[in-house]
Amino acid sequence: MSLNIKDLPDEHLFTPGHTACPGCAAPIVVRNLMKVFGKDTIVYAPANCLLVFGGTYPYIAWKVPYLHEAFENTGACISGVKRAVKKLGKDSLVVGIAGDGGTYDIGIQALSGAAERNEDVIYVCYDNEAYMNTGIQRSGSTPFGAATTTTPVGKKIPGKTQNKKNMAEIMRAHEIPYMATMSIAYPKDFLRKAEKARDTRGFRYLHVFSPCPTGWRHDPALSIEMGRRAVESGMWTLYEAEYGRITDIYKPKRKIPVKEYIRDQGRFRHFTEEMVAKLQEYADHKWKQMYGSLPEEKPE
Question: What average pLDDT does range 143-149 have in this prediction?
Answer without folding.
Answer: 98
